[in-house]
């Protein structure tokens, strides 16, 4: 056949074959095909030709017999379709004649039977987008389509989706959908019974009937249904995201899986739903152990800093209030034998640095700065252990070996050392509450807030101790310490007492700027995600009251729009109105920056592609854009595709500057500064939105590579910090290598940002390669006070909690985000963008905001009485199993350990024994185990 066709084409090299030639080729190829058939296939083809002829017979009885025979043959061949069935292959030439004959038939059973057969034949023979399969099925018998096989049902489901969309666009009434809805009700049970849950979910989603999935969910299929729904929620727009998650939550509740339902409810951020699940569901949980389930629910809420006042049980209140978290943390440390305190020198390992580096490191050019760095390194390395060799040594009087604000950070580090152990922490800090140095008092107040972070105590000591110093008339430092302490202690709690204390400070136009900004920050932390109208209006008015012309000179004023944005954390759909209000009321750069930040916090972790494109467009702008010359700038599309010559943007800017010379140069400089703040927010926004899912993370990494290559110098300074936010406590090799190169950049701001980002991606991991890179950098920046300070801070963050801590704002499954952790992390990274005026200047104590994200990266198993339970678990690299057939393994490359164990970024754990069942939906943090009632020991068999 191919040879004949080639010969035909060769005879007419410069023209198309005429119609007669095409027909001859088709006839010849058909004859060849028939000639190639086996004897059995030729006989089968002749039988189908005869059946097709008899279907068109005028005798009704002959028609009926032929239709039944044809129906039987096709059904037997399509029930399992691995290749094109022979009946469909041999009937292809009869499809059009049968369609024509169908139009002439009188209504009756024979016509409906032929409609069914034509519906099946149209799977392979109908023109694309004709929807003949569904059309003939609706005209045929209304018997269940599953009798024609799985492939037919899948094809029919696809055409139902297209037909539904077509009718919606045509504004067909709901009653006009009854025919296809009845078909959906037949198809969905079959798909669910044949392990095609994803296809059933897709069909119901396409026809806007996803809620009916709750009725079909059963014990045998609910896990695969819910896994598909919660995974698909990352790839659909709002409000479909919420709809999918709510359906999954309803299915979990129906099947008595309270802990799974709570996990979904916390991602939704619906406090009413969370309360409903906690109060009503455990009584009917499928596990049958109400005590264990309620305990696990309390632990899950505690990990997300949610405390329900309605709980009356004292034990559950203590678990929900995190009051005993430090006990399990220290137990983990004892089990891993890391209780011995670390000194800063243990972290620096100066003896491993070459001779030139040691010479620089031992110099006393800036001893106060080195002492300050040692304070932070000591606090981070011994985080939560309650003892160290620096501060606890009374002879060293370490606090007083620092200067001014350094004393404040040193005193506050007691709070970090005693993290989560509120009783011991308050006793230790009480020694400094009445010191003569105001900075020491301020540090003690800040330390009280730090040690109380994420702890809920009936006595509420933080509020009692800090509130009386908020209006301290004697010292602004003490006021700031108390104000920030309240923000740390009550982050995410929405306590109205804090609002009453701090709103007057923010609203006072005559108050010092630093005090106002820190009060706003504390309010943002406490009321994150609440969208409190009074706070929003107060913060907007505070921005208006300030002299916005000094925006560039006052770095701390950036905390005002940042605090405003925190109020909309996770409120993806509720930000449009406030963004419009901000843009209308706040002029210039502050208004634009505030609008961007609100958009970022509202969409954080959502993977919203449209937002990423919007922010990328801002990052691709050049200062010449403010003059309206679009042809002089590189577009975001060119940046994202990587199709820009390296010199393109440079040449345009050079020619532009040559033309304008003297009179426009000052204006261009101003435009560049105005654009900088908006680009800072936009660049960080890409990472904040894409950080929760793998595909988005990979694409964001590629985008940042292009921005480094073709973006403005101002954007290059932000890219390292954005990469850090993208991979918090998850040191991916490609990110690490890129940051290592940038840490030696000629632009010192880029280098400092890369150094901090290296610490952030390795936070709490003790990663050996990053530790080696930072040691080399300590020698490289030995004579640069700011660079060396940044290296020391990064080293402290890397060894945080001696490797037992994670700063990741997401759970290990990357299912949902912790608002507290995200707000603290983003604030630090945002301030790092102007670190020379903030963190590397006198506001270094803000580095403790990282502790809002700190939590043990452990798996600790306990029984229903919260006593440790040592069981074997497998820990390995997580594998995506959504939609896979059977029961695939969810981890690969695993190792078997006995709990408690550490879980690194990208890893997942599963029980290696069937003796116990985990109450928690995923093995992370504190997990309650119950006895498996069906377990039988091998020796008992």
UniProtKB/TrEMBL annotation:
Protein's name in the database: 26S proteasome regulatory subunit
Annotated RPN1 N-terminal domain residues: 49-352
Organism: Galdieria partita
Keyword Repeat part of the UniProt annotation: yes
Region (Disordered): 1-41, 626-671
Alphabetized InterPro entries for the sequence: 26S_Psome_Rpn1, ARM-like, ARM-type_fold, Proteasome/cyclosome_rpt, RPN1_C, RPN1_N
Record's keyword terms, sorted: Proteasome, Repeat
Gene Ontology BP annotations: proteasome-mediated ubiquitin-dependent protein catabolic process; regulation of protein catabolic process
Pfam families tied to this protein: PC_rep (PF01851), RPN1_C (PF18051), RPN1_RPN2_N (PF17781)
Any one GO molecular function term: enzyme regulator activity
One cellular component (GO) term of this entry: proteasome storage granule
């Amino acid at each position: 056949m191919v040879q004949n066709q080639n010969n035909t084409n060769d005879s007419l090299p410069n023209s198309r074959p005429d119609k007669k030639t095409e027909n001859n080729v088709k006839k010849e190829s058909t004859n060849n095909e028939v000639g190639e058939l086996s004897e059995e296939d030729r006989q089968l083809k002749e039988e189908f030709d005869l059946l097709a002829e008899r279907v068109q017979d005028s005798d009704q009885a002959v028609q009926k017999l032929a239709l039944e025979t044809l129906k039987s043959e096709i059904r037997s061949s399509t029930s399992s379709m691995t290749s094109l069935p022979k009946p469909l292959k041999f009937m292809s030439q009869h499809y059009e004649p049968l369609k024509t004959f169908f139009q002439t038939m009188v209504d009756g059973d024979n016509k409906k039977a032929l409609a069914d057969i034509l519906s099946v034949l149209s799977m392979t023979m109908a023109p694309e987008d004709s929807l003949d399969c569904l059309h003939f099925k609706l005209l045929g018998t209304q018997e269940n389509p599953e009798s024609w096989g799985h492939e037919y049902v899948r094809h029919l489901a696809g055409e139902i989706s297209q037909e539904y969309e077509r009718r919606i666009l045509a504004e067909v009434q709901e009653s006009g959908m009854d025919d296809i809805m009845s078909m959906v009700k037949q198809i969905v049970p079959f798909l669910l019974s044949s392990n095609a849950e994803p296809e059933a979910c897709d069909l119901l989603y396409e026809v806007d009937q996803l809620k009916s999935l709750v009725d079909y969910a059963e014990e045998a299929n609910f896990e695969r249904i819910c896994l598909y729904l919660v995974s698909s929620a990352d790839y659909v727009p709002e409000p479909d995201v919420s709809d999918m998650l709510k359906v999954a939550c309803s299915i979990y509740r129906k099947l008595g899986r309270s802990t799974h339902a709570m996990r979904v409810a916390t991602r939704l951020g619906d406090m009413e739903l969370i309360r409903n699940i906690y109060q009503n569901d455990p009584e009917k949980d499928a596990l049958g152990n109400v005590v264990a389930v309620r305990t696990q629910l309390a632990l899950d809420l505690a990990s997300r800093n949610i405390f329900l006042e309605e709980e009356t049980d004292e034990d559950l209140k203590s678990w929900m209030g995190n009051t005993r978290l430090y006990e399990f943390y220290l137990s983990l440390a004892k089990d891993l034998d890391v209780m011995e305190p670390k000194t800063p020198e243990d972290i620096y390992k100066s003896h491993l640095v070459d001779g030139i580096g040691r010479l620089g490191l031992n110099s006393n050019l800036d001893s106060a700065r080195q002492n300050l760095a040692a304070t932070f390194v000591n606090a981070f390395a011994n985080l939560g252990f309650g003892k160290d060799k620096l501060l606890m040594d009374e002879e060293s009087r370490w606090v007083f070996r620092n200067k001014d604000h350094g004393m404040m950070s040193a005193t506050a580090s007691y709070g970090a050392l005693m993290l989560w152990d509120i009783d011991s922490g308050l006793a230790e800090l009480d020694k400094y509450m009445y010191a003569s140095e105001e900075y020491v008092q301020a540090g003690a107040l800040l330390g009280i807030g730090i040690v109380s972070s994420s702890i809920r105590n009936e006595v509420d000591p933080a509020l009692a101790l800090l509130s009386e110093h908020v209006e301290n008339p004697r010292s602004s430092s003490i006021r700031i310490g108390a104000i920030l302490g309240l923000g740390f202690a009550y982050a995410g709690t929405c306590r109205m007492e804090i609002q009453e204390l701090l709103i007057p400070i923010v609203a006072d136009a005559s108050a010092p700027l630093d005090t106002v900004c820190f009060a706003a920050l504390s309010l943002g932390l406490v009321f994150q995600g609440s969208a409190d109208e009074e706070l929003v209006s107060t913060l907007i008015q505070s921005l208006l009251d300030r002299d916005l012309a000094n925006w560039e000179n006052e770095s701390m004023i950036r905390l005002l729009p940042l605090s405003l944005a925190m109020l909309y954390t996770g409120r993806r759909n509720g930000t449009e109105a406030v963004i419009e209000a901000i843009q209308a009321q706040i002029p210039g750069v502050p208004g634009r920056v505030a609008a961007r930040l609100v958009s970022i916090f509202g969409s954080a972790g959502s993977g919203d592609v449209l937002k990423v494109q919007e922010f990328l467009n801002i990052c691709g702008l050049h200062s010449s854009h403010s003059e309206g010359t679009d042809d002089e700038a590189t577009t975001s599309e060119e940046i994202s595709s990587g199709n820009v010559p390296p010199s393109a943007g440079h040449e345009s800017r050079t020619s532009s500057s040559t033309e304008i010379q003297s009179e426009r140069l000052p204006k261009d400089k101003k435009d560049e500064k105005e654009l900088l703040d908006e680009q800072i927010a936009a660049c960080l926004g890409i990472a904040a939105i894409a950080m929760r899912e793998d595909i988005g993370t990979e694409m964001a990494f590629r985008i940042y590579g292009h921005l480094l290559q073709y973006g403005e110098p101002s954007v290059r300074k932000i890219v390292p910090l954005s990469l850090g936010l993208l991979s918090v406590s998850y040191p991916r090799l490609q990110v690490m290598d890129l940051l290592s190169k940038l840490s030696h950049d000629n632009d010192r701001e880029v280098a400092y940002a890369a150094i901090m980002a290296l610490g952030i991606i390795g936070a709490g991991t003790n990663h050996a390669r990053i530790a080696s890179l930072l040691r080399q950098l300590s020698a490289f920046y030995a004579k640069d006070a700011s660079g060396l300070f940044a290296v020391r801070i990064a080293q402290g963050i890397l060894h945080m909690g001696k490797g037992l801590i994670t700063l990741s704002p997401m759970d290990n499954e990357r299912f949902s985000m912790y608002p507290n952790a995200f707000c603290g992390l983003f604030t630090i990274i945002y301030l790092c963008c102007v670190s020379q005026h903030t963190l590397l200047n006198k506001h270094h104590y803000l580095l403790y905001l990282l502790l809002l994200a700190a939590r043990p990266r452990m798996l600790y198993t306990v029984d229903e009485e919260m006593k440790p339970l040592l069981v074997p678990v497998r820990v390995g690299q997580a594998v995506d199993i959504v939609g896979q057939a059977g029961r695939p393994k969810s981890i690969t490359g695993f190792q078997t350990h006995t709990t408690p164990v550490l879980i690194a970024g990208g890893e997942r754990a599963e029980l290696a024994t069937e003796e116990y069942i985990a109450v928690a939906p995923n093995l992370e943090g504190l997990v309650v185990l119950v006895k498996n009632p069906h377990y039988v020991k091998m020796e008992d068999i």
